[in-house]
Specification:
By secondary structure, this protein is α+β, with helices and mostly antiparallel strands. It is built from 20 helices and ten strands. The strands form three sheets. It has a five-stranded mixed beta sheet. Strands 9-8-10 form a three-stranded antiparallel beta sheet. The chain is globular. The relative contact order is 0.08. The structure holds manganese (II) ion. Manganese (II) ion binds next to loops.
Length: 491
């Protein structure tokens, strides 16, 4: 990797960009890291260059790219953050400061782990671009992982699967999540990885060929009989790690995976999406219950697309994903799409957070203030924030974002503590449902409340899946016990 490769990529997208500062940053980093080598034997400068290149691929702004070039300078060389601020201004300095403060997040006892995680979320809450640099840094570290001793390999890869990939997912960065997972997969589950490669390789090729014919047919149909403007149509192979996870849910039977190679259709406008869907259903019958309108009802992380599966030629099932270019960029780059190209100004320009997209980071930080032990904090994070999310609807059509397997009890407490305490029953999709019913994506949930109800029952602690609901139920009983002690002593 050279600085020219990076500059050329920037210029190919934004020809008028002034890259003077970037070149200066490169010279500065080159000088600072002179003589240093990576474990792989490469010159150290290769690592910051690869990091910056990834940030350019994600179309991030110039301050972030410059910070990528300089990100290891304060930690690994004589030069300090102060030097960087003097040379490159406060905005770049603060981004690098965010990275440096994080230090190296390692499993060294739960306490340290939890503390480092907290630091990461604080840094993200201040400026979320810090995590993009951390992601880019991590991708290059994973690519050069083979040079490290096995114990380190496993720790870094595991940490990526447990922390970085879920954060990327919550930020809607689907492509990056897939890349992080696939790079870590062979180090964490070597046997499983071998198995996946072995069963999928032939299948992938066969499906790819088959998909080519499907793509030809769709292209012809849309050109002849519709006004739909196709930006791009392609077969997309599923990432290895997500294929692995899906196989675990489907008896390890690859024949049951319909989206091994999905057809991705990118069109110009929203009405093109629906129009194309109609034409595809005209060519082949849709599989019942597989049509998903994530355009009208986006996923909790913001993902938008139309999905459908059809019985294509010879009755084989093919999945289609149809979306506009804008939706596609959001799906690939997620929240990073909000930082697209910005000229380097040298002045500090704090970037406003898209508030609703980052609300969960604030909730996470608030959660940490409440929980006492690092064990609890980690459990909360894993259960409430990083499991797969579903959205369910209130009777008014408001969307509530909950972890997978949440129950009506979780729903009730999520809306309001009092609604939880007075919950007497639930209707899911207009039918009476038990309080321990696992909710599914898109369910409409209504809580039947009873004002005379004294409070939750003890067994709700088993039913509730979210830490938040459990906590509220426990709090209620704590208060109860205090009151009954007062009563006992005739207060
Ligand atoms: Mn680094």
């Amino acid at each position: 990797m050279t600085i020219d490769t990076i500059i050329n990529l920037i210029k190919s997208r934004h020809p008028d960009t002034d890259v003077t500062m970037l070149k200066l940053a490169y010279d500065y980093a080159l000088e600072a890291h002179r003589g240093q080598k990576r474990a792989s034997g490469d010159d150290y400068i290769q690592h910051p260059l690869e990091t910056a290149h990834k940030l350019v691929e994600y179309n991030l702004d110039m301050p972030t790219i410059i910070a990528g070039v300089l990100h290891d300078v304060p930690e690994d060389t004589e030069r300090t953050i102060k030097d960087i601020e003097k040379n490159f201004g406060p905005e770049v300095a603060e981004l690098i400061n965010g990275i440096t403060k994080l230090g190296k997040i390692k499993y060294r006892g739960l306490e340290r782990y939890a503390e480092n995680l907290r630091k990461m979320f604080v840094a993200m809450a201040e400026d979320v671009r810090v995590i993009f640099i951390k992601f880019a840094d991590r991708i290059n570290n994973l690519k050069t992982l083979s040079a490290l001793p096995p114990v380190k390999q496993k720790r870094i890869a595991m940490e990526t699967l447990e922390i970085y990939a879920p954060i990327a997912n919550r930020l809607g960065m689907g492509e990056l999540k897939g890349e992080l997972e696939d790079l870590s997969f062979p180090y964490v589950y070597p046997e499983e990885y071998k198995w996946i490669r072995q069963i999928s390789q032939k299948k992938y090729e066969e499906r790819k060929k088959y998909t080519e014919q499907i793509i030809k047919k769709v292209t012809k149909e849309l050109a002849a009989n519709s006004s739909v403007k196709i930006v791009r149509i392609e077969g997309r192979a599923k990432h290895y790690f997500s294929l692995y996870q899906k196989l675990l849910k489907h008896d390890r039977d690859i024949e049951k995976i319909y989206d091994l190679v999905a057809v991705r259709l990118i069109v110009e406008r929203i009405d093109d999406c629906y129009n194309a869907l109609g034409h595809i259903h005209g060519l082949w019958a849709p599989v019942p219950n597989r049509i998903k309108d994530y355009i009208a009802r986006p996923k909790p992380n913001g993902y938008q697309s139309l999905h459908t599966s059809v019985y294509a030629d010879d009755g084989r099932i093919v999945e289609f994903q149809i979306r506009t270019l804008k939706m596609h960029e959001e799906a690939e780059f997620g929240i990073a799409a909000h930082w697209t190209y910005k000229e380097y100004s040298g002045k500090k320009s704090s970037v406003p957070l898209p508030p609703e997209k980052l609300k969960w980071i604030k909730e996470l930080l608030a959660e940490q203030e409440k929980t006492t032990s690092p064990e609890n904090y980690l459990t909360t994070i894993k259960l409430d924030f990083f499991t797969s999310r579903i959205f369910v609807l209130t009777p008014h059509g408001d969307v509530i974002d909950l972890p997978e397997n949440a129950t009506p009890i979780d729903f009730a407490y999520h809306i309001h503590t009092d609604l939880g305490h007075h919950c007497a029953g639930a209707r899911v999709n207009d039918k009476i449902a038990a309080l321990d019913t696992p909710l599914k994506n898109g369910d409409m949930v209504e809580i039947i409340s009873d004002k005379n109800r004294k409070g939750p029952s003890e067994d709700w602690l088993e039913i509730a899946q979210t830490h938040m609901a459990k906590h509220k139920i426990q709090e209620f009983f704590k208060k109860e016990r205090k009151l009954s002690i007062f009563k006992l002593f005739g207060r």
